[in-house]
Amino acid sequence: MLDPNYYEMLEIAPSATPEEVREAYRLLAMVWHPDRFPKDSKLWAHANEKMQQINEAYNALKNAPPVPAQPAASAASPHPANDTGRYAANSESEQRRHVHDQERQRIDVRQNAEAKQRRIGEQKKREEEQRQAAAAARQNVESEQRKAEADRLRVLMREAQRIDEIKHRRSEQGQCILCGRPLGRMDKIARRDRHRECSEFTD
Question: Residues with Cβ < 8 Å from 186, sequence gap 6 or more?
């Protein structure tokens, strides 16, 4: 004799046909399959146990003939057996619709969460690209500034070297290192390398 709990596991009535058994199994598998849950969660263990019970019930009932519904003893209905069958069928249909609606809600929630994660990821990627572009632009500006400063220093050094060479040459030739005119006798006696008026002007 089949275990009545099998019908409860599949949420069907004993009078369910093999087609209804398969349909109930398919809907419950969509809800409780362990692959739908993270493996490191408690919900996965519960879903795994629930799926094992569903498989056991399905294997026991998939080829079992439907159990005829028992006629009710009440005289209130002229066709109690038909009323019971209709109630059971309606109840099973409502259960299947309820399970299907729940599954659809779970799928919608998961898809919305995945879409939100994608949008967040894309936004972070754009922000990172903008930061990298700004950093590269700053590096280019700083590099150009350093290059310009180095060029300016080289020009100043060359100019200073040229002036030192001119002064040295004028000094050797007995000329004022500032204006280049020959030094006077008194300037030479005082061992000056520039005219008095040039010294006064520069000092």
Answer: 196
* Span 172-186, pLDDT tens digits: 888 888 888 888 777
Q: Residues near 196 by Cβ (< 8 Å), separated by ≥ 6?
A: 184, 186, 187
Amino acid at 191: R
- Phi and psi at 122, nearest 5°, equal -65, -40
Q: In this predicted model, what pLDDT tens digit does every residue of 115-151 receive, in sequence order?
A: 888 888 898 899 999 999 999 999 889 989 999 999 9
* CATH number of 4-67+82-125, picked from 3.50.30.40, 1.10.287.110, 1.10.10.60, 2.60.40.1740: 1.10.287.110
Please enumerate in sequence order all residues whose Cβ is within 8 A of that of 100, keeping only pairs 6 or more positions apart, or say none.
27
Per-residue pLDDT at 77: 47
CB atoms within 10 A of CB 175: 19
